[in-house]
């Protein structure tokens, strides 16, 4: 699915976040960046058969931005960006030592029930960024969606007071609650011009 790495000189928390993402994106891999350039990473992703490259950028010790890049030697390019309020790691939610999914299965993206059109739009965008599959929620349970799509993992777009949240379910681990990581998103921007900013959505005017 994707190769996951960080900007240069990541913090321990950022590396842990990358490892957590490896465990919820099927058949993906977290790779230590080292001195590799973007071109090196793209070639590594292509050689390993991945369709996406995800780079986690750091600010003040925490993950700030997620950059998604399409892996294609003839048509590679930046797809879009998520700017984050913050994250909660799997261990902070109560899950440790979750194994990665080392087999092909769909990564399904849906929403929580009773959310607005902005959440649905972001669910579609998140599916595009990750190479996943968007499935409208309706009144279906998450387990029903997972069963119909032959998958053990679902990313769910949820409400969050200052933006939106992405949470992850692994039904092979537990059917009761999300395993994380929890990603709190304040802005998303796509290279084709689509964008969303929580301050604009809430009518918050810039200071000054």
Automatic annotation (TrEMBL):
The keyword Iron does not apply. Residues 1-196 form the Brix domain. Keywords: Ribosome biogenesis. One of its GO terms (molecular function) is rRNA binding. InterPro entries: Brix, Brix_dom_Rbsml_bgen_prot. SUPFAM superfamilies: Class II aaRS ABD-related (SSF52954). One of its GO terms (biological process) is rRNA processing. Probably involved in the biogenesis of the ribosome. This is Probable Brix domain-containing ribosomal biogenesis protein. It comes from Thermococcus peptonophilus.
């Amino acid at each position: 699915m994707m190769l996951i790495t960080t900007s240069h000189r990541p913090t321990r928390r950022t590396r842990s976040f990358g490892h957590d993402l490896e465990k919820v994106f099927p058949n993906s891999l977290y790779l230590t960046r080292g001195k590799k350039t973007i071109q090196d990473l793209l070639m590594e992703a292509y050689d390993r058969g991945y369709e996406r490259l995800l780079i986690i950028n750091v600010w003040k010790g925490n993950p700030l931005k997620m950059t998604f890049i399409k892996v294609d030697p003839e048509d590679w390019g930046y797809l879009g960006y998520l700017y984050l309020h913050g994250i909660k790691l799997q261990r902070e939610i109560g899950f440790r030592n979750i194994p990665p999914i080392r087999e092909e299965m769909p990564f399904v993206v849906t929403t929580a029930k009773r959310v607005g059109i902005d959440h649905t739009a972001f669910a579609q965008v998140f599916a595009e960024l990750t190479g996943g599959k968007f499935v409208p929620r309706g009144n279906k349970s998450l387990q029903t969606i997972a069963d119909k799509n032959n998958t053990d993992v679902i990313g769910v777009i949820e409400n969050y007071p200052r933006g939106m949240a992405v949470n992850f379910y692994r039904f092979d681990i537990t059917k009761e609650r999300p395993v994380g990581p929890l990603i709190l998103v304040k802005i998303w921007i796509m290279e084709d011009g689509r964008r969303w900013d929580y301050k604009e959505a809430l009518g918050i005017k810039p200071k000054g």
